[in-house]
Design a protein that fits this description.
84% of the residues lie in helices and 0% in strands. It is an all-alpha fold.
Length: 430
């Protein structure tokens, strides 16, 4: 066992300096992700008991993200990518402060906090996606995303349970509110540490300065349709566990425990899939994740009780990382191909990709809100996830077409890698 662990550690150490720094930066920041994704939604539920406000908060976040992607493209002309990446991480703490300072959770305050969090996510993801594509290649991307997902899943064991226990250990609304304030302070400290780690990397800005285009290769439009289906679930799936658990299971303690159950098994599975799978295995990995998600969502819709919610959360713990593990390398591979064909910088595609995600997020969140206001809250919680999960199964067929077309038109590997080397050399000379 120790020999195996030593071998895996040696494999990590054999990666490039920037590869290791990016993984370590994201590992530190991952400590606050469960707080942002789960417990902010739980805070809104606790103080308003209104699931529509949670979804509206999520919509505000997703509106801020594409706007910040555009802003980030402009800022990259003047600021080093490390500064923008770090600012994105630290803004997440600012958003939480805004939320905790609201005396009443009205729609205006929730929207401001959500937009601020969207700014944070936009700066974080825009720069993280570019760095991921610039420091990896198609051969080690499964490993990169498998390693990251393994780290995130392990953190998902400890953080939700610890925070849930911490909040539940307090008695009275005042003490529980103070607990959220303490958590917000810890988030600030962690984001500062993540920023310091980031500055150890030798990350360079994109050389090409034009990022906005309106016509693309047909392969890219297929990827945008796949992004729309991915965004469909993101529309409210991030906060759906919090809403379900508050309505069905109870409070934050149950939330933390439910999120932690099964995470160890999921982490091990994801790591080894990422470590040893090949690019040709991505469709199988993607399909497995989508099918598990659909099974859990349909079970939740059929039974809508404590058992079905727990099973859904367990399946989601495995399904979501499986989907991400396959989706991101597919996305970056397509960017490699079309950027080479169209002679454009990668960031132009990272920026445009967000439009596909945003459309899907609007449709996903809109589905929930329509069911909520037209029929009922319980109906929306019960069936919206199942509807979206079944629609997402279309992604299996789209991804197969993307990979088949990509393989048929892909330039030779050296032709793709050489421009990257030249771009990095040019960046170092600037």
């Amino acid at each position: 066992m120790l020999k195996k662990l030593s071998s895996e550690f040696s494999h990590f150490r054999s990666q490039s300096h920037n590869f290791k720094i990016l993984v370590l930066t994201n590992m530190v920041y991952a400590l606050v992700q469960p707080v942002i994704d789960i417990f902010v939604a739980a805070y809104i539920m606790r103080n308003s008991d209104d699931t529509s406000k949670v979804v509206i908060y999520q919509l505000a976040i997703y509106t801020g993200i594409p706007l910040t992607f555009l802003l980030n493209g402009f800022l990259l002309k003047y600021f080093n990518i490390r500064k923008l990446y770090s600012t994105g991480m630290m803004l997440s703490g600012v958003s939480m402060v805004i939320m905790m300072s609201l005396k009443t959770l009205d729609l205006t305050g929730i929207a401001i906090a959500g937009i601020t969090m969207g700014l944070s996510f936009g700066l974080y993801w825009a720069n993280r996606d570019y760095l991921a594509i610039s420091i990896t290649n198609d051969e080690n991307r499964n490993y990169y995303y498998g390693l990251e997902t393994f780290i995130y899943t392990i953190i998902a064991i400890a953080v939700p349970a610890t925070i849930g226990w911490f909040i539940q250990s307090k008695t009275g609304e005042s003490e529980k509110h103070n607990a959220y304030l303490i958590i917000t302070g810890v988030v600030f400290i962690i984001t500062m540490i993540a920023s310091m780690v980031c500055f150890r990397g030798k990350f360079e800005n994109p050389v090409q300065k034009k990022y906005i285009f309106f016509k693309f290769h047909p392969l890219w439009y297929k990827l945008l349709s796949l992004a729309m289906f991915k965004g469909l679930a993101q529309g409210f799936l991030v906060t759906a566990p919090a809403m379900l658990i508050f309505k069905i299971l109870g409070e934050e303690g149950a939330l933390g425990n439910a999120q932690s159950i099964g995470a160890i098994l999921a982490a091990i599975i994801i790591y080894f899939i990422g470590r040893f799978s090949k690019p040709s295995d991505r469709i199988k990995t993607f399909s497995a994740g989508l099918i598990l998600f659909a099974l859990g969502a349909c079970l939740n819709g059929a039974l809508f009780d404590q058992t079905s919610v727990i099973i859904f959360l367990l399946l989601l713990l495995i399904a979501k990382p499986l989907m991400d593990l396959a989706y991101y390398p597919i996305q970056l591979r397509v960017i490699d191909i079309v950027s080479h064909i169209e002679k454009r910088g990668e960031f132009a595609y990272i920026l445009n990709h967000e439009s596909g995600l945003y459309l899907g997020r609007l449709l996903g969140a809109g589905t929930f809100l329509v069911l909520y206001f037209v029929i009922s809250e319980d109906f929306a919680l019960r069936y919206a996830i199942g509807i979206i999960a079944l629609l997402q199964l279309c992604s299996i067929f789209i991804s197969k077409k993307i990979i088949a077309q990509g393989n048929s038109i892909a330039p030779e590997k050296n032709d793709i890698e050489e421009p990257k080397v030249l771009e990095e050399t040019a960046a170092n000379l600037v």
